[in-house]
Amino acid sequence: MIYLRLIWAYLKIGLFGFGGGYAMLALIEREIVGPGWITKQMFTDIVAISQMTPGPIGINSATYIGYVAPGQYSDAFASPIYGILGSILCTLVVIIPSFLLVAYTSHLIHRHRESIVVKGIFTGLRPVVVGLIASAALLLMNEANFGTDTYQVVWSLTLCIAAFAMVYWLKWHPILIICLAGVAGWLIY
């Protein structure tokens, strides 16, 4: 049944999705695109939509994928009722492990924050999280985002580098960059 498979996939994502939404992207892509519940293009669109809507990307993508995946799995589940059920299940299942882990461990970590073991664990997790976020960046550098013809690839790379420079060095507000990117995309493409 698609719902049990979605629950299992999002349980794994919720339990092992350290480092926030971007760090989760590689895991989400493997668990959701891998079985064929959605296409790579749909995944790229979901990431874009999840970035534009309020809330964490992991939860937003879970809600959207939970809605879309049952209909993609079988025409028998194409009704909006099945999509709403999938959305609710995926959203809850991705949230519950983190909630329980934080509720259970927060007092222990606070009590033992000066412990060499706890410091060592966090020191080991930090570079892994950076690696997972870098992996998400590489995951999103695909044909769906950058195109296949030379014209589109060159413009996409130019926009990517310009956006990075404006945020990192010029310290422009990300909302301004998003608006400028929309205008540039409309003018260029």
Give the topology.
Blueprint: H1 2-16, H2 21-33, H3 40-52, H4 57-73, H5 80-111, H6 116-140, H7 143-146, H8 150-168, H9 174-188
Helix pairs in contact: 1-2, 1-4, 1-5, 2-4, 2-6, 3-4, 4-5, 8-9
Can you tell me about this structure?
The longest helix has 32 residues, at 80-111. Helix 3 runs antiparallel to helix 4 (57-73) and helix 4 packs antiparallel against helix 5. The chain has helices at 2-16, 21-33, 40-52, 57-73, 80-111, 116-140, 143-146, 150-168, 174-188. The mean pLDDT is 90. It is mainly alpha-helical and 189 residues long.
What's a quick, concise take on this entry?
This protein has 189 residues and is mostly helical. The protein is 81% helix and 0% strand.
Rg from C-alpha positions? 19 Å
How is the biggest beta sheet arranged?
none
Inertia-based shape:
flat
Mean pLDDT: 90
- Give me the number of helical elements: 9
Note poorly predicted spans.
none
User: What order do the helices and strands follow?
Assistant: HHHHHHHHH
Indicate the structural class.
Answer: mainly alpha
Taking the alpha carbons of the first and last residues, their distance comes to 41 Å
Q: How many strand elements?
A: 0
Q: Can you give the helix content as a percent range?
A: over 70%
Strand content: under 5%
